[in-house]
Automatic annotation (TrEMBL):
Transmembrane segments: none annotated. The keyword Metal-binding applies. The keyword Iron applies. PROSITE patterns: RADICAL_SAM (PS51918). Pfam families: Radical_SAM, SPASM. This is MoaA/NifB/PqqE/SkfB family radical SAM enzyme. The lineage of its organism: Bacteria, Pseudomonadati, Pseudomonadota, Gammaproteobacteria, Oceanospirillales. Its cofactor is [4Fe-4S] cluster. Keywords: 4Fe-4S, Iron, Iron-sulfur, Metal-binding, S-adenosyl-L-methionine. It comes from Marinomonas balearica. InterPro entries: 4Fe4S-binding_SPASM_dom (IPR023885), AdoMet-like_SPASM_containing (IPR034391), Aldolase_TIM (IPR013785), Radical_SAM_PqqE_MftC-like (IPR050377), rSAM (IPR007197), rSAM_sf (IPR058240). PANTHER family: PQQA PEPTIDE CYCLASE, RADICAL SAM DOMAIN PROTEIN. Residues 1-242 form the Radical SAM core domain. One of its GO terms (molecular function) is iron-sulfur cluster binding.
Length: 342
């Protein structure tokens, strides 16, 4: 079957993280605790190493070129993360990593340099989650971090990236969630990213998983939405000036203005960036169609499990093909934060 799929995300360890970021659907201080999720039966397991290898090998055989380790939970806490890296090296696949920037060390020998030396040679891009340039903002949004340590870790990782640059270039992205608490710090975050040697500043509008953070959205108040649009213009102007003299072009991702008349629709007419192009697999082998919050994306349908079916069979199924044809009529898709302007 001909297809355009090029990337797959394996949510290997969504319930394992060492931080409590306020916007995280699983680990926020406002989310149910691990104990509560365990007692309710909603705590998800680690992905089995055999399942991991089977999916990666099948994806490679299908022509999928890039693999993303868990974007829910901290991927470096997955006990088989080294296996992940080894498979990418063996099969010629590219890793695309999002990490919370703490570079946790499940084993004594695993520090920032260890991870960098293992990750950089097989990785297209490393996204470090970051949400402020003041200690107060950073630590209050990403509970468990300090700005000083985040900067130190980034410098150490970038140094290894630069050492490898002549053999393999791994771009670095500073990634944030756009919200009221860090809105005024975004221009300074751009300056920090430039100074530290990052290649991109990327963000997403807030998913308001909890009532306690609904006030943080930039999309429910014209004043904040208008201020966001001003900051978007400033950042694009700053990057244009930077790129006139820089050796490497710096990029902004998802920095587009909001339609002040239709704030409920982040991207009027925007297409789904995932269907037919990217896939997700949860730790039990369940195929998912996008990165929407887990309970919400289940409303889109059941697309099968990799323990009982092949990946190629599931993307050819009537369930998946029907969603591709009808997704624009689904309420979840209409409200999706990931669509971009047409």
């Amino acid at each position: 079957m001909a297809h355009e799929f090029w990337r797959i995300t394996l949510d290997t360890n969504p319930d394992f993280c060492n931080l409590n970021c306020v916007m995280c659907e699983d680990h926020s201080p406002y989310a149910d605790s691990r104990a509560e999720r365990k007692s309710s039966g909603s705590l998800r397991p680690l992905m089995d190493a055999d399942l991991l290898e089977r999916i990666v090998r099948e994806a490679a055989a299908m022509g999928i070129r890039e693999i993303i380790p868990s974007t829910m939970g901290e991927p470096l806490l997955y006990p088989h993360f080294d296996t992940f890296l080894d498979l990418c090296a063996e099969l010629g696949l590219t890793l695309n990593l999002t990490t919370n920037g703490t570079f946790p060390a499940p084993k004594d020998h695993q520090n920032v340099e260890y991870w960098a030396e293992r990750i950089v040679p097989v990785t297209s891009d490393v996204k470090i989650s970051w949400n402020g340039v003041s200690e107060k903002t950073q630590s209050e949004i990403m509970v468990g971090t300090t700005l000083e340590k985040h900067i130190e870790n980034a410098k150490r990782f970038v140094a290894i990236r630069d050492k490898w640059a002549s053999k393999h270039y791994c771009s670095m992205t500073m990634q944030l969630t756009f919200m009221r608490s860090n809105l005024e710090e975004i221009p300074e975050m751009l300056e920090l990213a430039l100074n530290l040697g990052f290649d991109r500043l990327k963000g997403h509008q807030l998913w308001t998983h909890f009532d306690q953070i609904k006030h943080e959205s930039l999309r429910n108040d014209l004043v904040y939405a208008s201020r966001w649009n001003q900051i978007v213009r400033h950042c694009h102007e700053r990057v244009t000036v930077h790129n006139q003299t820089s050796e490497r072009r710096f990029r902004l991702d998802n920095f587009f203005e909001l339609d002040l008349v239709k704030l409920e629709d982040i991207s009027p007419g925007g297409e789904c960036p995932f269907l037919g192009k990217e896939l997700w697999v949860d730790p039990t082998g369940r195929l998912n169609v996008c990165c929407a919050p887990d309970q919400q994306r289940k409303s889109l349908g059941d697309f099968g499990n990799l323990n009982t079916s092949k990946l190629s069979e599931l993307i050819a199924s009537s369930s998946y093909q029907n969603l591709m044809a009808t997704y624009q009529s689904h309420d979840l898709c209409k409200s999706c934060n990931m669509r971009r302007p047409a």
